[in-house]
Design brief:
Elements: H1 2-19, E1 21-23, H2 35-41, H3 55-66, E2 68-70, E3 73-74, E4 86-91, E5 94-99, E6 104-109, E7 128-134, H4 140-158, E8 161-165, H5 170-176, E9 184-192
Antiparallel strand pairs: 1-6, 2-3, 4-5, 4-7, 5-6, 7-9, 8-9
Helix pairs in contact: 2-4, 3-4
Bound molecules: flavin mononucleotide.
Length: 195
């Protein structure tokens, strides 16, 4: 009986571990709009349908933001090569942390926290918000800026709408993301399809 109980408990632990992590499809890392066309097309659009972001598109959004591209390094440069950006995914199904090494998103909470970002009504339909987090007062905003620019270019190429947002309750969101004391949400970016 004891053996059966410990077997069942091990099973439930491993089930939890699996359930807490989602493997994303491999990102498509070739093609898209020519770079100069994407630069010309990038813009803020404050209008979203509720249509969810599919796993393939999410994988590519995250790869452009912070994926591994060369020599174990990322799609954006970081000061002193510290590689110290964190990218969180906020969707209806909860809060997730992107793991670029494994190409997974790891569950932080099952709570839909997007309402914290509804300080501007036009984002209330947005299916996805990225939250860029760092702990380096001087350089984290620059890292976040590089990442949101890459995402903005990807959105231009893919026909997605996006808006970078600094206007929200930063400490309230940081709490929901379970950040360490020295970490903060630098900025967020709402992404979604047109209505
Ligand atoms: C750091 C940063 C914070 C921003 N915060 C907001 C915001 O809170 N709300 C908003 O509607 N737009 C925000 N924006 C979007 C800017 O208003 C927008 O980029 C600007 O009007 C230029 O338009 P464009 O992106 O189409 O070139 C932000 C942009 C940046 C770079």
């Amino acid at each position: 009986m004891l053996k059966l109980l410990s077997f069942l408990s091990a099973l439930s632990i491993s089930f939890c571990a699996v359930a807490q992590e989602i493997k994303l499809p491999a990102p498509q890392t070739e093609g898209g709009m020519p770079l100069l066309n994407a630069v010309a097309a990038r813009k803020t659009t404050r209008e979203f349908s509720t249509r969810p972001i599919d796993a393939q598109t999410l994988s590519e959004i995250l790869w452009t933001a912070w994926g591994l591209t060369h020599d174990g390094k990322h799609s954006i440069p970081t000061s002193q090569n510290k590689q110290n950006l964190k990218v969180y995914v906020l969707q209806a199904d909860g809060v997730w942390l992107y793991n670029p090494e494994k190409n997974t998103i790891e569950n932080i909470s099952k709570k839909d926290v997007r309402s914290i970002l509804n300080t501007q009504a036009f984002v209330k339909n947005a299916p996805l918000h990225l939250a860029f987090v760092g702990s380096d007062k001087k350089n984290s905003p620059m890292h976040a800026g590089s990442a949101y620019q890459n995402v903005g270019l990807y959105c231009a190429s893919k026909g997605l709408n996006n808006v970078v947002r600094g206007y929200f309750d930063h400490p309230a969101l940081g709490k929901e993301l379970n950040l360490k004391d020295n970490e903060e949400v630098i900025v967020t970016q709402a992404v979604g399809w047109s209505k």
